[in-house]
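Risk register update: the risk of archive-format incompatibility is retired. Evidence:
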Amino acid sequence: MERKQASSSLQIDNDHLRVTEWRFAPGAATGTHIHEHDYVVVPVCDGELEVVAADGASTVTALKRGGSYFRTAGVAHDVVNAGPGEMIFVEIELKDTGIRRDNPGVGG
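Archived output:
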């Protein structure tokens, strides 16, 4: 089954970070992707997201407005709005961290 595509709006993109607002209609998804940098997610509203790992395993998590979380680079997943209403969050990618060929222990 094909899912609706979540929409993204790039707010800041410089040498140090990338800030993107993501908006999900119910059932909408980002599509499978790999995070190349460490990142922080800041929910703009309460909602539920289903995270589907590369191996197909999935987890549904309740998010609360303003309840930020951090993840390290290398995460591969699809993110789906599992709730009944629109879900919005801001993702902040930290370009100074993450997967680095010269220091593989950083962010990975």
